């Protein structure tokens, strides 16, 4: 018997968890317009709807470097304390409206110091904005827990500074670390000293790998640098032939290493060809710990509700599949076990039962 199709309204009500989402890729178009006007930055258009469409079209290049170039305009309005406070607070409220109960937001502080803020001042402002958003969401009856991942930009030379910040703010809302930016030509092992420092300090980290570059980047991220999760990781399928797993794929599945998969974004950067054939479905069916994520909600014109709906409509996912990736995300979140378990047992599982 075929399971009934899940409609969008039902999906919107489902509790969700997102591990891979960039702060500077998720601003509200209207906010970008208002803040750009305040700081004198020229945008492609000052109409919020047209700006949202511009982002989506500009990002559909099939190239990661060109995709990243669209961030020029969001970063331009995130160089002041006021801009960071507003965008961080709105970020949380937008997650809550989408049914997200746990989120990890990542950003690179070094990209937000052009207005004179120091690296610690950037982190402090973002944390203050996130806290304000969480308080408002809770007061509205839609509580959401948001942890922060600080990023170092892999093609620059401040990765160790970002790692030091993650250690310094580990008790102030920062839950982990990542490196971001152009992947091909900038292997994670270039920053091994930073990762060794994080391991010594017991700070968990993920690494963007297996998106624009293949298996060697995943191998380096895990076996050389010691990442606990992999950002994207779609190219792990290069190590799977006719359902048979190679050594690296075996390692990833057996060790329950979470793959932070972002279907729409992967289509835009050329890492996948369609939602129907996106590796997330094959990997889920093979028992990998896949998670579902948005990556950049403005740039990709998406939400968690949309990502789930696409998989239901184009890849035949069931509500059980959606529950599985949500639980997977919480099992691999960079917060303490008791908090993860409480979200699963007290929020996610009852939420799925109630929605259905």
**Beta fraction of the residues?**
5-15%
Strand order of the largest sheet: 1-2-3-4
Q: Kindly report the oligomeric state of this protein.
A: single chain
- Average pLDDT over all residues: 94
The end-to-end span amounts to: 18 Å
Radius of gyration over all CA atoms, rounded: 19 Å
What topology does this entry show?
Blueprint: H1 8-13, E1 16-22, H2 29-39, H3 48-59, H4 64-69, H5 72-76, H6 81-97, E2 100-107, H7 119-139, E3 145-153, H8 159-168, E4 174-180, H9 192-200, E5 206-209, H10 215-224, E6 229-232, E7 240-241, E8 244-245, H11 247-254, E9 258-261, H12 263-269, H13 279-285, E10 290-292, H14 304-315, H15 319-331, H16 337-355
Parallel strand pairs: 1-2, 2-3, 3-4, 5-6, 6-9, 9-10
Antiparallel strand pairs: 7-8
Helix pairs in contact: 2-3, 6-7, 8-9, 15-16
Task: From the structure above, extract its key features.
356 residues, alpha/beta, 4-stranded parallel sheet, 16 helices
Structure characterization notes:
With 356 residues, the chain is an alpha/beta fold. It contains 16 helices and ten strands. The chain has helices spanning 8-13, 29-39, 48-59, 64-69, 72-76, 81-97, 119-139, 159-168, 192-200, 215-224, 247-254, 263-269, 279-285, 304-315, 319-331, 337-355; strands at residues 16-22, 100-107, 145-153, 174-180, 206-209, 229-232, 240-241, 244-245, 258-261, 290-292. The strands form three sheets. The chain has a four-stranded parallel β-sheet with strand order 1-2-3-4, sandwiched between helices. Strands 5-6-9-10 form a four-stranded parallel β-sheet. Strands 7-8 form a two-stranded antiparallel ribbon. Helix 6 (81-97) runs parallel beside helix 7, helix 8 packs parallel to helix 9 (192-200) and helix 15 packs antiparallel against helix 16. The mean pLDDT is 94.
